[in-house]
Design goal:
Helices cover about 0% and strands about 55% of the residues. The chain is mostly beta strands.
């Protein structure tokens, strides 16, 4: 399984940005797709997750501002980020969960300027 993330960059506080991630390879039996983020010196943490039946969960810090969704092709996942804050600055990683395995994309930098 390979994951390719797109959409990072520099944005002003209060702005919006959309991240995309496409999975390729053997992508059957997916349990969930997710976005994580990691700031310098901090652990990687889950931001949002969507199951194969569409159930979603969000970190408290992004609830009401971020929306995770899957594409029609089911091998894509998006993260719509609104009302961005400087503390959202991080490298964002897309993640695919299949059984007990986690697969990771390469990460994309999101920088929110104040």
């Amino acid at each position: 399984v390979q994951l390719q993330a797109f959409g990072g960059g520099l944005v002003q506080a209060g702005g919006s940005q959309r991240l995309s991630c496409a999975a390729s390879g053997t992508i059957s039996s997916i349990n969930a797709l997710a976005w994580y983020r990691q700031s310098p010196g901090k652990q990687r943490k889950v931001v949002a997750i969507v199951s194969t039946i569409g159930n979603t969960n969000y970190a408290d810090s992004v609830k009401g501002r971020f929306t995770i969704s899957r594409g029609n092709a089911k091998n894509t996942v998006y993260l719509q980020m609104n009302s961005l804050k400087p503390e959202d600055t991080a490298v964002y990683y897309c993640n695919l969960k299949r059984g007990s395995w986690d697969y990771w994309g390469q990460g994309t930098q999101v920088t929110v300027s104040s």
